[in-house]
């Protein structure tokens, strides 16, 4: 799991080209590109984004699945990003406490927007019901022909 992509941030800002950035286990820095700063998830052409805007942490839970948390840079450098980090269109900027993310969540840094795409498989309720029905049908034993006796090995 170490070198493989643990998810992606998809750039989806209005009037800009779509781009995809791989996320890896550990800290993934999000910020504006400058001479001094080369973040893992670069933001270009957005004067409202800080050089060190936010950190998206990917970790492996005790259930052995990826967890995604985002924090404003305040937690690392002691001062928040200038214009804040927002999740899912909220008008309230995230503070110094990590916010748990899930597949499809949107993150806004300055005017730049990203969508989180995780490695987990999404299943609709309808697909889940169909799968459950199919598994139940497979669990029903087939009718035996008359005279067939099953014996358990001892």
How is this structure best summarized?
The protein has helices at 74-77, 125-139, and strands at residues 7-11, 19-23, 26-32, 41-43, 54-60, 66-72, 85-87, 99-101, 106-109, 112-118. With 154 residues, the chain is mostly beta strands. The protein has a single domain, classed as Tumour Suppressor Smad4.
Describe the structure.
With 154 residues, this protein is mainly β. It has a single domain, classed as Tumour Suppressor Smad4 (Sandwich). The chain is 12% helix and 33% strand. It has two helices and ten strands; from the N terminus they run ββββββαββββα. It has helices spanning 74-77, 125-139; strands at residues 7-11, 19-23, 26-32, 41-43, 54-60, 66-72, 85-87, 99-101, 106-109, 112-118. It has a five-stranded antiparallel beta sheet, with no helix packed on it. It has a five-stranded mixed beta sheet with strand order 4-3-5-6-8. The longest helix is centred in the last third of the chain and has 15 residues, at 125-139. The radius of gyration is 23 Å and the shape is elongated. The two termini are 42 Å apart.
In the CATH scheme, the class would be Mainly Beta
Our Rg estimate from Cα atoms comes to 23 Å
Q: Spatial order of the strands in the main sheet?
A: 2-1-10-9-7
Q: What is the CATH architecture term? A: Sandwich
| Low-pLDDT segments, ≥5 res | none
The number of helical elements comes to 2
Main sheet record: 5 strands, antiparallel
Shape: elongated
- How many separate domains make up the residues? 1
CATH fold assignment: Tumour Suppressor Smad4
| Class by alpha and beta content | mainly beta
* DSSP summary, beta strand count: 10
Mean pLDDT: 82
| Percent of residues in beta strands | 25-35%
First and last CA, distance: 42 Å
* Order of H and E elements: EEEEEEHEEEEH
The residue fraction in helices comes out at 10-25%
